[in-house]
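Chapter review: from sequence to fold.
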Amino acid sequence: MLFTKRERTIRRILIVEDEPLVAFDNEYLLGEDGYEVVATVDRVADALEVLDRERLDLVLSDILLSGEGDGTDVARAAAAKGVPVLFVSGHCPVEAQKLAVGCLAKPYTDRTLKAALTALDTLFQGERLKKVPEGLSLYDRD
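The token string follows.
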């Protein structure tokens, strides 16, 4: 077949978001788009539990979270497990650039989120991006 969809490398996603409407929208959108949202949590401690018990392909995390800690703590734990992180935040601090594959600027649209995940999937498959989606900043992965 000439126009087949390629297999995704990103299938199982953990959403770490403390804004309930954003969390719900992301969970619904990603589920409808064929991703398996393993869990949606709003606290670092809950994210660490999911990281310990689940196989994940990506963590989608805000920087500012409920309770103690923040998204950089989630990213450090994910890195220890070899799981890439995409921050979704209105402001990604400079130190976050060493912890994640990139940052998607808030506010973002459903279309922008899908485009960002497609771009990451392309990179994870070792291919070059033709264009970085609007609102997505990619970080060096050295």
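Two observations follow directly from the output. Residues 15 and 60 are 5 Å apart (CA to CA). Residues 12-138 form a domain with the Rossmann fold fold (CATH 3.40.50.2300).
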